[in-house]
Amino acid sequence: MTLHTVNKSPYLSQCLADCLDRVSAGDSIVLIEDGVYGINCATSETLSALNKAIAQLMTLGVQFCALRPDIEARGLQTTSANCPFNLLSDGDFVDLVCEADKVLSWY
Amino acid sequence: MKFTIVILGPPYTDQAAETAFRFAQAVLEKKHHIYRLFFYHDGVHNASSLLSLPQDEIQPSQRWRQLIDQYQLEAVVCIASALRRGVLNETEAKRFAKPGNNLMPGFELSGLGDLIDAAQHSDRLITFGPSS
User: Model pTM?
Assistant: First the structure.
């Protein structure tokens, strides 16, 4: 399993879209820094193309996560029931990196 | 598990160095090892001892130094990136006839070979890229 990190907002950058184009079944994606704005994918019409890609990748067993400290620092709402992202502490992030074979950073 | 952490972002411009620091702390708290910290591109600015901040603010290079000292970490600063950006140790300052040096104690200047070596000898290598 490869772990992908994405550190840029999907509103400003192709990072997340490029990442989604290239993940394999069973991989994990962690949104970090401004990348956490990507958690809006589930609800934002602007990001509906990403939303569809994420829904499809979830059926292939791709795991979607976001760093909780970065979400809280930006005051983002994470209460949505259809938010597909698991929230990670920094320690959880380390555990996930250990589970992965390698890390690919999208920036 | 042995980690190598590559830091490509400078302090302040973006969050990369801050995330890398938090990640390094979490790695050490989980009792893993850090094989090497590698500061590359604009990340070399984290190794400048001349950063001068108000006392009540986070001191980026001091904070790295404390972590390096506490856990006896190896912190390598890419020499080619550093020289271009004015981060010099005593030897390089003399070699280029510069009026002073500013590499924070605890950090060392070395080449990209150390990054290749780290990739070979670490279980995990993670890169924290800049935002621009």
Answer: 0.96
